C-alpha cells in the first residue's frame, strides 16, 4: 500500500496539521509504509510517487480515494499514461459537492 496524502494551502481544510489533513486512523499507515504528499489533483505531479512505485517494482495499481471526478480521475489518467495497469475499484472512491 502506498498512501497519498493531499496537502492543501493555508486555510484549506486539508492544510497540513488541520483535522481534515490526517489520514483516517483505522486505515492509517503503519511504520515503514510509504506516504506520498501531494499538492495537485494528480498524485504523480510534483511528487515522488513514480519513484516509490519503481522502487517497489510496481506495474499495476488498484486506485481508491476521494473526489472521484478530480484527484482520483487525474491520478488514474496519469497512471495509464505512464503505462501502469490501472484498476479503479467501483466501491473504493467517493466525492462530495464542489464549492467552485
Overview of the structural elements:
By secondary structure, the protein is an alpha/beta fold. 21% of the residues lie in helices and 25% in strands. The protein has two helices and four strands; from the N terminus they run E-E-H-E-H-E. Helix 2 (68-81) links the parallel strand 3 (60-66) and strand 4. The longest helix has 14 residues, at 68-81. The model has no long low-confidence stretch (mean pLDDT 92).
Quick structural overview:
By secondary structure, the chain is of the alpha/beta class.
User: H/E series, N to C?
Assistant: EEHEHE
Approximately how much helix is present in the residues? 10-25%
Overall morphology: globular
Q: How many β-strands, per DSSP?
A: 4
- Average pLDDT number: 92
> Taking Cα atoms only, what radius of gyration do you get, to the nearest Å?
13 Å
Amino acid at each position: 500500500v502506498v498512501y497519498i496524502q493531499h496537502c492543501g494551502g493555508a486555510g484549506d481544510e486539508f492544510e497540513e496539521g488541520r483535522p481534515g489533513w490526517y489520514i483516517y486512523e483505522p486505515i492509517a499507515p503503519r511504520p515503514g509504509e510509504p506516504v506520498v504528499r501531494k499538492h495537485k489533483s494528480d498524485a504523480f505531479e510534483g511528487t515522488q510517487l513514480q519513484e516509490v512505485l519503481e522502487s517497489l517494482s510496481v506495474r499495476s495499481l488498484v486506485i481508491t480515494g476521494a473526489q472521484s471526478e478530480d484527484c482520483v480521475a487525474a491520478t488514474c489518467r496519469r497512471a495509464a499514461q505512464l503505462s501502469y495497469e490501472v484498476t479503479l475499484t467501483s466501491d473504493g472512491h467517493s466525492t462530495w459537492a464542489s464549492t467552485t
